[in-house]
Amino acid sequence: MNAQKRYEIFSRLRDHNPTPTTELHWQTPFELLTAVLLSAQATDVGVNKATARLFPVANTPQGILDLGIDGLKDKIKTIGLYNSKADNLMKTCHLLLERHGGEVPDTREALEALPGVGRKTANVILNTAFGQPTMAVDTHIFRVANRTRIAPGKNVLEVEQKLMRHVPKDFLHDAHHWLILHGRYTCVARKPRCGSCVIEDLCEYKDKTEIE
């Protein structure tokens, strides 16, 4: 895929959705960090239901610690893996208070030093909370990047590096949101909805469907 085609793809995605953002509900960097930590192997809808119970009573590191591990688990027990997620969140809150004055850090190194925070989570925080041009490659982005041939790769790191290299700078800040949403609602896993896709004629996927 050449640079001109990539530019046209992202131009259309921007025209279709000029201000994309995460579907997780958050108001502060800590709320976003909490929501992303809870989102592993869970839907954004499910996480939003849990944080709607959690954030009104505890939406700061100290608030979570004051809630206690049992209180935290009770608020998020509807989410899969809630026991381990609660443990990681409690440990993260301790470190945020000890090392960062209760604030979420804005560097990859500091974020990835927090329990439960890997490269993808750090990329989400850096991009969505702090406006840095990062690419948080999840299963949706991995699929779309390979299927369309925008940035094919054998693993998520390879896809991330290719996207950072090939996505035009004009679109880099919002690109991962466009790709996630495109993979979630149009370029779905089993039967992509090629018939209603705004980039169908630019996509290099060989097994296109007529589904809308």
UniProtKB/TrEMBL annotation:
Enzyme Commission designation: 4.2.99.18
Supply the SUPFAM superfamilies for this chain. Answer: DNA-glycosylase
Annotated catalysed reactions: 2'-deoxyribonucleotide-(2'-deoxyribose 5'-phosphate)-2'-deoxyribonucleotide-DNA = a 3'-end 2'-deoxyribonucleotide-(2,3-dehydro-2,3-deoxyribose 5'-phosphate)-DNA + a 5'-end 5'-phospho-2'-deoxyribonucleoside-DNA + H(+)
Checking InterPro entries in the record gives: DNA_glycosylase (IPR011257), Endonuclease-III-like_CS2 (IPR004036), Endonuclease3_FeS-loop_motif (IPR003651), Endouclease-III_FeS-bd_BS (IPR004035), HhH-GPD_domain (IPR003265), HhH_base_excis_C (IPR023170), HhH_motif (IPR000445), Nth (IPR005759)
Transmembrane region(s): none
Give the cofactor binding note: Binds 1 [4Fe-4S] cluster.
Q: Which UniProt keywords are listed?
A: 4Fe-4S, DNA damage, DNA repair, DNA-binding, Endonuclease, Glycosidase, Hydrolase, Iron, Iron-sulfur, Lyase, Metal-binding, Nuclease
Q: Which cofactor does it need?
A: [4Fe-4S] cluster
Q: Which residues form the HhH-GPD domain?
A: 38-185
Q: Where does [4Fe-4S] cluster bind?
A: 187, 194, 197, 203
Single GO MF descriptor: class I DNA-(apurinic or apyrimidinic site) endonuclease activity
Keyword Iron in the entry? The reply is yes
Q: SMART domains attached here?
A: ENDO3c, FES
* Family that this chain belongs to: Belongs to the Nth/MutY family.
Biological role stated in the UniProt entry:
DNA repair enzyme that has both DNA N-glycosylase activity and AP-lyase activity. The DNA N-glycosylase activity releases various damaged pyrimidines from DNA by cleaving the N-glycosidic bond, leaving an AP (apurinic/apyrimidinic) site. The AP-lyase activity cleaves the phosphodiester bond 3' to the AP site by a beta-elimination, leaving a 3'-terminal unsaturated sugar and a product with a terminal 5'-phosphate.
Output this protein's name.
Answer: Endonuclease III
The organism named in the record is: Chromohalobacter beijerinckii
